[in-house]
Amino acid sequence: MTVYQFLSGADWRNIWVVGDLHGCYSLLNSKLAAIGFDKEADLLISVGDLTDRGKENVDCLSLIGEPWFRAIRGNHEEMMLDALVNHRDAGLWRMNGGEWFFTLDDAEKIRVRTLLPQVAALPLIIEVETPLGRYVICHADYPAEHYQRDKRIDEERVVWSRERIAASQRGQRKTISGADTFIFGHTPVAVPQRFANQYYIDTGAVFSGVLTLMPIQESGRQK
User: Fold this and answer.
1) For 18, phi and psi rounded to 5 degrees?
2) Which of 76, 87, 146, 186 does the annotation list as catalytic?
3) Which of 30, 141, 179, 209 is a plausible cystine mate for 136, CB 3.0–4.6 Å?
4) CA 79 vs CA 15, 74, 111, 157: distances in Å
5) Predicted pLDDT at 89
6) CA 14 to CA 92: how far, in whole Å?
7) Reduced to 3 states, what is the DSSP secondary structure of residue 148?
8) Which residues are CB-neighbours of 146 under 8 A, at least 6 positions away?
């Protein structure tokens, strides 16, 4: 499993980070059109949870093959892999929105299965160096007080933990050192939340129709 992936902002003009998609492919396309996203020059990074609960799951999952798209592994990707690759806990996935896969026709099931190696290869953490600072993107949390690329961490907490956001909502807010800004999804919030140097951008698109795209680099591509 890839844990850390490093990206240089110099390779793209604009970079956005998008909250949990959960099958909201049409909504994403409308948001990309609204910001003038250029697939030849710009990059979109997903905080994970591409599928489940929404209706356009295969389309969202297929995004991982696009050159203008990067994603990290969320807990819903973990549940998919457990069910379809490791052959365990299918019931857990189905209870949490994975029923869509079992209603697909055979051709669509094959399409999904061909993407599973790419899903398994998704990193848990993406670090992006931009002119405005270093961004670290994880699904649920970076479970340490200091960030360091390739540092060993509790991988399960990266995709599942809600301890940090719960503490922050109680007023116990702590900066994570080692990077300028951390961006998380996983825990739905009505509007994007900032605590210390951490942003939470899962605005529950599949339920609310509100999908958040957070810019982390604008017109920054080097000639």
Assistant:
1) -110, 145
2) 76
3) 179
4) 28, 9, 18, 14
5) 86
6) 37
7) coil
8) 176, 177, 178
Q: Which of 190, 111, 93, 131 is nearest to 10 (CA)?
A: 131
Count of C-beta atoms within a 10 Å radius of residue 53: 21
Q: Which two tokens stand for residue 128?
A: 């992006």
Residue 180 has pLDDT above 80, yes or no: yes
User: 217: which 2 tokens?
Assistant: 């680099």
Q: Is 200 exposed, middle or buried (CB count within 10 Å of its CB: 0-12, 13-18, 19+)?
A: buried
The pLDDT confidence band at residue 219, using thresholds 50, 70 and 90, is: confident
77-90 burial string, b = 16+ CB within 10 Å, else e? Answer: bbbbbbbbeeeeeb
pTM over 0.90: yes
Three-point CA angle 8, 80, 127, nearest 5°: 15
Q: Is 22 a catalytic residue?
A: no
Cβ proximity of 139 and 49 under 8 Å: yes
pLDDT digits (tens, 9 = 90+) for 78-96: 999 999 999 998 999 999 9
